[in-house]
Amino acid sequence: MMNTPSVFRRLWLLVLLSGIGFSDDLWAQQGPPANAPVTTTVASSGTVGKDSNSYPPLPIPFYRGSHPTRRDLVGFYFHSFMLVYLLGLFVLWVWTANWIDTDANELKVQPQLWNSIVLLTGVAGFVGSLCAPQWFLSFLSMTAGYAIPMGIYVAERNKRVPESGKVLTPRHLRSVALRLMSRLGMNVGTKEQRSHAGGPPIRLIGKSGKGAGEVDRSRQVESSTGYIAARELVYDAILRRTTDIHLEPKEGEMSVRLRIDGVMYPAEAFDRSTGDALVNIFKVLSAMDITERRKAQDGSFRAEMEGRTIDFRVATQGLHGGEKMVIRILDKGATAKTLSDLGMRKQLVEQMQAIVSQPHGMFLTCGPTGAGKSTTLYAALQEINAYENNIITVEDPVEYKMPNVTQIEINSKAGQTFATALRSILRQDPDVVMIGEIRDGETAKISCQAANTGHMVFSTIHANDTIAALFRLIDLEVEPFLLASSISAILGQRLVRKLCTDCKEAYKPSADLLQKIGLPADKVDKFYRPPSKPEGTCPACNGLGYTGRIGVFELLVINDRLRDLIRETPNMTAIKAEARKNGMLYMKEEGLRLVVKGTTSIDELLRVVK
After folding, report:
1. Are residues 294 and 219 in the same domain?
2. Orientation of helix 111-131 relative to helix 135-158, angle to 10°
3. Total H helices, total E strands in the chain
4. DSSP state of 424
5. Please, which pLDDT band fits residue 69 given cuts at 50, 70 and 90?
6. Which of 93, 157, 511, 583 has its CA 20 to 30 A from that of 309?
């Protein structure tokens, strides 16, 4: 048996020098050296026996070090492989802990909790590896202390991100492998796979090569400086539900603002050289003249992302300090909603269904840009059987693809406008015609004439409310008698942001506020609003307090009395009074219903509806 000082020396080296895999097993197998001293005594009977004051002889040989046969390793108590593994795993653990901290803060998934879990389990795993009696127990302790919290965190964070943002999936591992190989000069996989490996999974596509004289301009910018940054900007904007990207030149930088749910939010800016490179890349993709920086230009390009195609409309404007660019995102892969999905109350949905199912007439939606007018028209078309009816649309551009619907995109450069397209499609035996927008008197007159000749016409017009839309058509020189006989209904609308259901808070509104908006104080218990003092950022809304939008509507149904008023003496006050008699509610009154239900806040409603 080993003496006591030797035992303490081995334990001391175990703690100090991470003595993983001491040579206990080898020592047990080889036995002591031949010249190892053994204390024995000779008994009186002539046989070898034990001295009562000495230790019994060692049953196995003893050697000092990790290797029993190599004299140059005498006194070396490290397991070489396990020491290298321990140091490598420690470095990997530090890097992983830093990544988890950054990622958890960005995704708002309790970063303090995950940092504590990673630290405690990592320390426990390393301490356990130093104290384990066998090398394989040390290996298991170290690996478990690193892998278990890492695996649990990855599983948790992958639930909160889209498929393209998940890590340690086959797709992610393949992307990492392709990226490493490309850095080593090995071009493995398809060109598209290599492109995705060097950035986000989105592919920017310039003008299509199907037209005569056109080329796919995406190839011209793939090797340009800032191309990866352009893809990252577009990809991040799509994930944030952005509708418009604003690139605005400032002194020394190119600022970026994103319009999310109708409100502008600042994003991370680019330095001026990178920002100018981004503008040039988008201009090349949109077939613009990159040498012209003073005149306004417009164009378009598209992108492929996660199996769907997304269109982008680009407009530039020369400024004193550079060139500003606005990119509008049009997700053509999205599906049109139905009327019941727009947020209308049940009675309003029933009225709308009765209007759009009429055999002839004209239905208009009005509101400012970005109020969701086109979405409402698409929802109305969903109520019509496309197999039994010939539905033709004229749009700029086509925003939603609809099956069994003939969709025409106007081309002003080729001379095809709403008016010229409308003349031609009326000779194609349509049942339902949708005009993207009434912009001029010619389009307005042809639309009214089409409604009077047995067609159902849907269209949009820019006006603040339904009554103003009537007089806007009169301003476009549509005769009152023609308008009165053709118009069926006008829907005014706005979009308000919906409160985040995870972080909204209730409060008691003041009596003055209730009196101002016309609600009885005894029938309103509470309103809702975004958190006034948020404890951390809500992961559902990313700290905005709102997520998504819902419509606020005002429906004016034209009856016989209103037709007489329009035909005889068009007077806004008289028409408004008659509409109120028929039960029309103003947009503000419809919006208060959403406020009382807790769908939106009173501040958001007053911001949108005056």
Report:
1. yes
2. 170
3. 21, 18
4. H
5. low
6. 157
Q: 176 in a domain, yes or no?
A: no
- The Cα-based distances of 293 to 189, 230, 298, 300, 394 in angstroms read 39, 19, 12, 17, 32
Asked whether the beta carbons of 155 and 169 are under 8 A apart, the reply is: no
Please check whether residues 124 and 109 belong to one and the same domain: yes
**Is residue 287 classed as helix, strand or coil in its secondary structure?**
coil
Secondary structure E strands in 43-159: 48-49
Q: What is the pLDDT of residues 340-392, one digit of tens each?
A: 888 888 899 999 999 999 999 999 999 988 888 988 999 999 899 888 999 99
Query: Average pLDDT, whole number, for the chain?
Result: 80
User: Which residues, other chains included, contact 164 with Cβ-Cβ below 8 Å and sequence gap of 6+?
Assistant: 200, 201, 305, 306
pLDDT category at 43 given cuts 50, 70, 90 is very low
In a 13 Å sphere around the CA of 470, the CA atoms on its Cβ side amount to 31
> Is the domain of 40 the same as that of 93?
no
Number of structural domains in the chain: 4
Instruction: Say if residue 350 is in the same domain as residue 467.
Output: yes
Is residue 68 within 8 Å of 35, Cβ to Cβ?
Answer: no
Cα 592 from Cα 500, distance rounded (Å): 18
Domain that holds residue 90: 81-160
454 and 583 both lie in a single domain: yes
pTM for the model: 0.66
Residues 442 and 444: their CA atoms lie apart, in Å, by 5
Domain annotation covers residue 10:
no
Residue 232 lies in a domain: yes
Q: Which of 421, 438, 439 is nearest to 430 (CA)?
A: 421
Decide: 244 and 329 in contact? Cβ < 8 Å. Answer: yes
Instruction: Give the residue ranges of DSSP H helices in 453-501.
Output: 466-475, 480-486
Q: Of 361, 359, 177, 214, whose CA–CA distance to 299 is shortest?
A: 214
